[in-house]
Amino acid sequence: MRQQYETALPPLNYGLLKGKRAAYYTLGCKLNFSETSTVGGDLEAYGVERAEEGECADICVINTCSVTSQADKKGRNLIRQVVRANPGAVVVVTGCYAQLAAQEILAIEGVSIVVGSGRKGEIAQHITELLTAEQNGIEIYRKKEIFTGGEQELQHRFEEGCSRDDRTRHFLKVQDGCNYACSYCTIPKARGRSRNGSIASMVAAAERVVEAGGREIVLTGVNIGDYGRTTGERLEDLVKALDAVEGIERYRISSLEPELISDELIDLVAASKHFMPHWHIPLQSGSDEVLRLMRRRYRRALFTDRIERIVRMMPDAFIGLDVIVGMRGETDDLFEESRSFLRDTPFTRLHLFTYSERKDTDALSIPHIVTPAKKRMRSNLLQELSSQHISAFYQRFCGQSRPVLWESTEHEGYMHGFTDNYIKLAAPFDPTAIAQVVPAYIGTQLPHNEEQCMGTLLKD
């Protein structure tokens, strides 16, 4: 049984958070990681300390993904694992899965609070409400739903986010939500309408990254190319403003819809010293008929035009493509059409996603269903094609020198870093190179990791 507070709470005592130990768990995209980091910062401001690995925490925050049914399953499994490993903890579940399936999550034993996508900034408040109620003897159960709000509410909320991984890179949230209506996707329901922070606020965030010692920023969002929807600004102007921030060596843009990649944006990145020749573009299918069924806003001709301009302006660019395998309606012939298109496209790597049935999506009305066996076969064929492309890309630069930002993680005597065009290198650990851009010769690919090469530092 679950009940809401029936007695008015006394004034919230945020001091109850001081000294509590919190553990954070994130599933899904880099946008989620940036938001989890912001939640952690909010709690730390009230004295919450980060729990050590393996330590039983007082507070557990789980930021979920819902891009596929498999992501939902991972979320449920993680929640149960966290509850078992942290008996008695306040367990907070947030993110896209929480937005779409709050009641389902509340049914999981041990969950304390569910917070929707647009209300992550309220997590400290809701934890304090629960702790305040317990301190004052108000009879409650450790089940309390926080209303997630609908799409209309989400479109008025932009919560900033910036996270740092264990290296030199920060992920800066510049945009949230999506106005598209792709037939297979639930993200607009989970994230709401497109909205963004102002250029001034993004520049201020980049300056804080500099103060924290960060050297690289990845711009994250749901549909970054739609930047400016709520502020009347443009992505191109954001790029110009960030490019002028002193102290940031590198920027990368995480993902851009092909029809939103303007000639001006390509030219700006090509001419920039700080925006790297690294593109991540969702193609989803190389078949115009499948793109129509998906309700994508472009066709192959436009996609080809954008790729050709990028390659012409930045011939050394790394180009990653998202592709969905086994979409409803993708017959054998349409898949072969897509694979043939990909063979002739100058990409570097494919990010493959198996189509997943999502409740309340229009794709469910498409009659032709691809069997799981065919999905696996098609994924294997495209993975083989991707491996061929990434290997050819790395071999093309073998023996050349490229600038590398070396990261702070040491593993078995080696350090790692990425070239400007996103080739991952390993080299013997050298503390003087950490967080510095030091050029290196690119060696051969490592046999145990096709997406990493040995590097030899070039130092004065």
Automatic annotation (TrEMBL):
Annotated MTTase N-terminal domain ranges read: 20-132
CDD domains (alphabetical): Radical_SAM
- InterPro entries annotated for this entry? Elp3/MiaA/NifB-like_rSAM, Methylthiotransferase, Methylthiotransferase_CS, Methylthiotransferase_N, Methylthiotransferase_N_sf, MiaB-like_bact, rSAM, rSAM_horseshoe
Q: Does the keyword Iron apply?
A: yes
Q: What protein name applies here?
A: tRNA (N(6)-L-threonylcarbamoyladenosine(37)-C(2))-methylthiotransferase MtaB
Lineage in the entry? Bacteria, Pseudomonadati, Bacteroidota, Bacteroidia, Bacteroidales
PROSITE patterns this protein is in? MTTASE_N, MTTASE_RADICAL, RADICAL_SAM
Please give the Gene3D superfamilies that the UniProt record associates with this protein: Methylthiotransferase, N-terminal domain, tm_1862 like domain
Q: Which residues form the Radical SAM core domain?
A: 164-388
Question: Which keywords does UniProt give here?
Answer: 4Fe-4S, Iron, Iron-sulfur, Metal-binding, S-adenosyl-L-methionine, Transferase
**What are the required cofactors?**
[4Fe-4S] cluster
